[in-house]
């Protein structure tokens, strides 16, 4: 455990083996010097031999937007700095790479319904983050892949790695092929700048989201032909998945349309978590009391109570008094 460059008040731990030198970035475990609380540290090495076209300007953009982009499904930045040597460090809440989380959770979760619900909740969060970028902030992420999605200790999927995020300008066009090739749409693979310059903003990330969905349910995409195999994708997602991957950019589904997709929204865990995950004040707590009461009385389909405790943790974080009531009601059933 060493000190972070630039004098930041954090200890830099070992790199995460699955996320080492990804376009110059490595993910490290870390701790706060003040209270020993865990953090994650993204470290950019400008001298990496695996930059794949990444530049210091892109890494600086990642730092700038990590600090300024605020959304429940964007990885929360705690601090960040660029050192005189050109290294860039972004300190965040503790997270793990998405593929690591999927591998670990599949191995330990014996209830497939519980795992499926957790994945649905995660995808719903990613959709919210990308829709926020594309439609509210009017920028594209541009580097979206499984390398840009991380999972918190509470199971929330969050987006980061904003190296290319912004408008489709000359800088983006010069570096857009930094994206993993398996996530590149046809016009990016062929470096068709005229199409990229004039296509709808959402179409850039829509294709990448489609590839992520295929990766989550069917494993990493090796060939473009793999995207045609929808056998492992839930039926409720298949049509939207296919529209995200339309060959013509103008025909690709705007990610915001997924916000109303029944598969992602008509799910008790998704509804509960997004309802609970908003800031509370006294008036809101009173307004939500009937919801908590109904939730505590709802029959528990899972024998291990995992869904209950997932929701209960959020209740604890938002209002401890209601959590006590919630827990007592559950035990009294």
Textual characterization of the structure:
This protein has three domains: 2-94, 2-Layer Sandwich (Phosphorylase Kinase, domain 1), CATH 3.30.200.20; 96-265, Transferase(Phosphotransferase) domain 1 (Transferase(Phosphotransferase), domain 1, Orthogonal Bundle), CATH 1.10.510.10; 268-331. The relative contact order is 0.10. The chain has helices spanning 56-68, 98-108, 112-136, 170-175, 186-189, 193-198, 201-218, 235-244, 262-265, 268-276, 282-297, 306-318, 320-331, and strands spanning 2-3, 10-15, 25-32, 38-44, 77-82, 88-92, 95-97, 149-152, 157-159. The chain is of the alpha+beta class. The chain is 44% helix and 13% strand. The longest helix has 25 residues, at 112-136. The strands form two sheets. A six-stranded antiparallel beta sheet has the order 1-2-3-4-6-5, covered by helices on one side. The chain has a three-stranded antiparallel beta sheet with strand order 7-8-9. The radius of gyration is 21 Å and the shape is globular.
Q: Structural class, from helix and strand content?
A: alpha+beta
Strand neighbour order, sheet with most strands: 1-2-3-4-6-5
CATH architecture classification name of the largest domain? Orthogonal Bundle
Can you say what the CATH homologous superfamily of the largest domain is? Transferase(Phosphotransferase) domain 1
CATH class of the largest domain: Mainly Alpha
- Mean pLDDT value: 84
Count of helical stretches: 13
Strand content: 5-15%
What number of structural domains do the residues give?
3
Principal-axes geometry comes out as: globular
Radius of gyration (CA) equals: 21 Å
C-alpha termini separation: 48 Å
Order of helices and strands: EEEEHEEEHHEEHHHHHHHHHH
CATH topology grouping of the largest domain: Transferase(Phosphotransferase), domain 1
Low-confidence stretches: 278-289, 295-309, 313-327
Number of strands: 9
**Major sheet size, sense and barrel closure:** 6 strands, antiparallel
In terms of quaternary structure, what is this?
Answer: single chain
Helix content: 40-55%
């Amino acid at each position: 455990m060493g000190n972070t460059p630039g004098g930041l008040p954090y200890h830099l731990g070992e790199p995460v083996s699955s996320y080492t030198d990804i376009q110059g970035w490595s993910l490290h475990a870390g701790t706060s010097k003040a209270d020993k609380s865990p953090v994650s540290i993204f470290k950019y090495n400008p001298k990496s031999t695996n930059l794949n076209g990444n530049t210091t300007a892109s890494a600086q953009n990642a730092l700038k937007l990590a600090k300024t982009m605020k959304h429940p499904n964007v990885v929360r930045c705690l601090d960040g700095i660029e050192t005189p040597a050109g290294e860039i460090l972004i300190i965040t809440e503790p997270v793990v790479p998405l593929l690591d989380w999927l591998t670990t959770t599949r191995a330990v979760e014996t209830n497939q319904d519980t795992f499926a619900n957790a994945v649905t909740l995660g995808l719903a969060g990613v959709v919210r983050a990308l829709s926020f970028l594309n439609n509210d902030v009017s920028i594209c992420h541009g580097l979206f892949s499984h390398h840009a999605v991380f999972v918190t200790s509470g199971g929330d999927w969050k987006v980061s790695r904003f190296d290319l995020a912004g408008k489709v300008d000359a800088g983006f066009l010069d570096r857009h092929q930094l994206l993993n090739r398996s996530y590149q749409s046809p016009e990016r693979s062929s470096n068709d700048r005229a199409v990229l310059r004039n296509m709808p903003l959402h179409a850039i990330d829509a294709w990448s989201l489609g590839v992520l969905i295929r990766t989550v349910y069917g494993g990493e995409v090796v060939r473009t032909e793999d995207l045609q195999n929808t056998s492992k994708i839930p039926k409720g997602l298949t049509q939207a998945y296919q529209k995200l991957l339309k060959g013509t950019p103008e025909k690709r589904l705007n990610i915001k349309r997924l916000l109303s997709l029944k598969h992602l929204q008509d799910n008790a865990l998704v509804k509960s978590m997004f309802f609970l995950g908003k800031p509370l004040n006294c008036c809101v707590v009173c307004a939500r009391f009937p919801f908590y009461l109904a939730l505590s009385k709802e029959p528990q389909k899972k024998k291990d109570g995992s869904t209950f405790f997932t929701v209960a943790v959020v209740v604890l974080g938002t209002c401890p008094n209601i959590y006590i009531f919630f827990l007592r009601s559950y035990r009294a059933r």
